[in-house]
Structure formats: structure tokens, C-alpha cells
TrEMBL record:
<dbReference type="Pfam" id="PF00583">
    <property type="entry name" value="Acetyltransf_1"/>
</dbReference>
<protein>
    <submittedName>
        <fullName>GNAT family N-acetyltransferase</fullName>
    </submittedName>
</protein>
<dbReference type="InterPro" id="IPR016181">
    <property type="entry name" value="Acyl_CoA_acyltransferase"/>
</dbReference>
<dbReference type="InterPro" id="IPR000182">
    <property type="entry name" value="GNAT_dom"/>
</dbReference>
<feature type="domain" description="N-acetyltransferase">
    <location>
        <begin position="1"/>
        <end position="142"/>
    </location>
</feature>
Length: 145
């Protein structure tokens, strides 16, 4: 075998990312015997225009719900919409057979929001800007809040 070419990029091609995902998924299926990974999105849209305003993205796999991104515009925060969207994601995880959920947030984002909803911190790693951390949370989905 020839020596492979290794490239570092901050603009990966979507097709390349798809190949890596597919190959990792195949490895995981062969190792675990489970092919249950599914994407998840809870989308918040403007009712008049259909414009996407925010929401949650993530996935479920092998009994875990992973929440990757959660965003709502500041004007939509504080009135219960975020709680409703998070609850919908947790409920969908339960429907998919997930026993636990995991996510991470930054100290300047919403750690208090997740604590308020029964999420438990299990680790933190200092990051930039100085004085902030990335906080890792988990939630037992067998427990309801």
C-alpha cells in the first residue's frame, strides 16, 4: 500500500464527511450488532413565513440520546418555548428506547437551563475565552421531570 495523503482542512467536502460517517456507522454496526442510529431535529419555524428560527439537533444510538445543538433567538427565550422543545427531544428519545441522554454547553450559554430540567453535570473542561468551560450533562430518561 502506498503512503496515504493526509490533509487538514476547515472546509471538508460534504461527500467526504458522509464517507467517514458511513464507514464509522458500518464499523459500529459490526461491533455492536445494532443499526439503530437515527438523526433527530426539533425545528421551530415562523408560522407566517416558514422561516427556521431555531431548534434542537441530535441523534439517537444504542440507547443514548445525543443533543448536539440547541438554539432559540433571544426574543423567544424565557416564555417556556425552550422547555417545551427540550421536553419534546427527551420524549422522542424515550420513544426511541433511549435510557439516557447527553449534551454539552458552555458556561456562557445555558447550564442553568439544563440543571433546571433535571440534567446532571458529569464533567467540565476549561476552554476559551479564558475563565469559561465546556460543561457535559447527562439525564436519566427513565426519570421524568
Amino acid at each position: 500500500m502506498n503512503t496515504p495523503v493526509i490533509t487538514v482542512t476547515d472546509t471538508p467536502d460534504a461527500a467526504d464527511l458522509a464517507v467517514i460517517r458511513q464507514r464509522l456507522d458500518q464499523f459500529n454496526v459490526e461491533a455492536s450488532g445494532m443499526a439503530d442510529q437515527r438523526a433527530l431535529a426539533i425545528l421551530v419555524k415562523d408560522p407566517a413565513t416558514g422561516e427556521l428560527l431555531g431548534g434542537i439537533t441530535g441523534r439517537s444510538s444504542r440507547g443514548l440520546l445525543f443533543l448536539d445543538m440547541f438554539f432559540l433567538p433571544e426574543s423567544m427565550r424565557g416564555a417556556g418555548l425552550g422547555s417545551r422543545v427540550l421536553q419534546m427531544a427527551e420524549d422522542e428519545g424515550r420513544r426511541r428506547g433511549c435510557r439516557s441522554a447527553v449534551l454539552h454547553t458552555n458556561t456562557f450559554q445555558a447550564p442553568g437551563f439544563y440543571r433546571k430540567h433535571g440534567w446532571r453535570e458529569f464533567g467540565a473542561i476549561p476552554c476559551d475565552p479564558p475563565g469559561t468551560s465546556r460543561i457535559f450533562f447527562t439525564k436519566d430518561l427513565a426519570q421524568t421531570t
